[in-house]
Amino acid sequence: MPLPPQGDTIAAIATAPGVGAVGIVRLSGPESYTVGARLFAPHSGRCVTDLPAGRIVYGRVTDGEELVDEALLLTFRTPHSYTGEDVLELQTHGGPAVLRRALELCLRHGARLAQPGEFTLRAYLSGRLDLVQAEAVLDLVNAQSDSARRSAALGLSKALTEQLDLIQSDVTRVYGNLQAVFDYPDEGVPDADFIEPLGRAVGRIDKLLATAKAGRIAQRGARLALIGKPNAGKSSLLNALLGYRRSLVSDVPGTTRDYLEAPLDILGVPVTAVDTAGIRDTGDAIEASGVELAKSIARNADLSLLLLDTSTPLEPEDLALIAELDPARLLVVASKTDLSAVWGPQTHGIATLNVSATTGEGLETLRQTVRERLIGDAGGTELWLGGERQVSALETVRENLLRAQAAPDDLAALDLEDALRTLAELTGRGDIAEETLEHIFKNFCVGK
Ligand SMILES: Nc1nc2c(ncn2[C@@H]2O[C@H](COP(=O)(O)OP(=O)(O)OP(=O)(O)O)[C@@H](O)[C@H]2O)c(=O)[nH]1
Ligand SMILES: [Mg+2]
């Protein structure tokens, strides 16, 4: 979809579809008040076009003689509005028929239906938000977990933009020094001035890039696989984490044959837990495909919990399975610790977490460890990069800076120019390709 035209007046329903106590229709653009005046009559008898900013006005939405609804009208005037334009928000009763009719009246009286994200696009184009903030708006609306919400709220508050500005100012300083060397070659510029800010900028970028995985998981959730031999206690652990019986448990090995998924909140991190079939060599064709599936689920998961039953001896297959899996995404769990153990963590030097699904022992530590392994240490502010665009831009800048550090001055200057251009694109302060804007805003909902 090409970028919509600017400067006209747009309208959309801003609240979610369905029935609610209140629904909102939003108007933005130079004709907002004129359009509003044609469909809304304030109880006071004043005309909408005469209303100042910052008012909440009670009145009637009408279609000619017909009463559509009683409503509140909120007034904003340029530049003090979300979009920076004249904005009206009509709060009607929140039923679909009322909202559809109110929107229809806006369109009939001169507004155009807004495209997805068009209000936020206008906020960006009018300079009210930079692009990183606009993306934070989208993340905030879509946040499914409190950690995602917190990170997006920080992004909206400019915390991320400020970090990018620090990087930009270091790069700009070095670039300026280089220009000075070109202009006054005899004066010379101390090396330290050159190297130090670039190293600092790369350090800041590395810190931000390290948050990208946490950001992705907070926004989209993580996949957590429960794997292990039959009877290891996988389904029991899933049920214990969930707090209700979701998965069938029995003392017959091979109870779980397919896999099953359950949404889980691990200390604020949204997780999809996947209970799998017990992994063993089996002649049963159906069970064998369950085992294959379990292995591939483990390979694709953000983290796998490998359960080892402490009440039965470890077998070579257990160690083989540990060796098969990526250690960065593996957490070995010693299960059934309420029973007497026949092996311990020292046995094969395997670091384990002790858990009993029956008594609940170790569950809290398990939750904390899973959270930490998925999104890092809980302490400090959680400001995460939001999305692929931000990650790939910062990776490009990082490469440019590393190359500049190693290059002769004239080539370094070119790399720094590239880095500055990419940084400007990232915040949206430079020349932005129309496709970039389309790509960002197409993911918004209509009315935002
Ligand atoms: N004492 C004790 N028994 C447990 C614990 N966890 C599971 N069990 C028992 O171990 C047996 C197997 O448990 P499941 O949860 O079905 O094991 P699973 O790994 O899902 O087994 P499959 O689906 O066959 O692969 C059941 O009899 C459970 O009651 C535990 O923490 N303590
Ligand atoms: Mg099971």
UniProtKB/TrEMBL annotation:
Entry note: cofactor: Binds 1 potassium ion per subunit.
Chain sites annotated for binding K(+): 231, 250, 252, 255
EC primary class: hydrolase
Domain of life: Bacteria
Any one GO MF annotation of this record: metal ion binding
List of residues binding Mg(2+): 235, 256
Cellular component, GO annotation: cytosol
Residues at which (6S)-5-formyl-5,6,7,8-tetrahydrofolate binds: 26, 89, 128, 448
Catalytic activity, EC: 3.6.-.-
Subcellular location, principal: cytoplasm
Subcellular compartments: Cytoplasm
Every TrmE-type G domain range: 221-375
Keyword terms of this UniProt record: Cytoplasm, GTP-binding, Hydrolase, Magnesium, Metal-binding, Nucleotide-binding, Potassium, tRNA processing
Cofactor(s) annotated in UniProt: K(+)
Binding site for GTP: 231-236, 250-256, 275-278
Assembly with partners or alone: Homodimer. Heterotetramer of two MnmE and two MnmG subunits.
Matches recorded under HAMAP family: GTPase_MnmE (MF_00379)
Protein name per the record: tRNA modification GTPase MnmE
Protein's organism: uncultured Truepera sp
High-level lineage: Bacteria, Thermotogati, Deinococcota, Deinococci, Trueperales
